[in-house]
Amino acid sequence: MKHTDSPSRSRKNAHAPAFVPSPQCFAGVVSGITDGGFMVHAGARCLLVQRAASCLMDPCVGDTVEVVGRDVRLVATSLRLVGSLLSSVMDRVNHFSRHYLRTTEGEDRVTATHVDVEATQLLKVQGEHTLVNGAKLVKARGGQIHFG
After folding, report:
1. pTM for this one?
2. CATH of the domain at 66
3. Which domain holds residue 40?
4. Fewest Cβ atoms closer than 10 Å to its Cβ: which of 13, 43, 68, 120?
């Protein structure tokens, strides 16, 4: 992502996050959108930043953006993606949320070498027809096991 200093360097933004400036680090708050890119305030600096061609996010005024080398980090109060296809390729994906809800009208499929699902209190699998297949072993453990 390229950035250039704008003439309004002395203008400060009260919402700009604290950051440690370095040649590899740029962080700030989007303050405006122009044909040439995004105006971003970072401390006392006002920068014109162009979105990278590979960036899937379209920052809005007030969003915090950060670019570190080739890494992109977006911090926003709300993020909504709407489209016909979302495709991502990652070596690793980490996700944390207080609540997570997913609704799929069609098939929801996971293909993996191992799938580990764990709940601290209750794990519920429910359907009109529920199948559990094990080519070599199906095991159920518990203080009590009820069938029927």
Report:
1. 0.47
2. 2.40.50
3. 3-75
4. 120
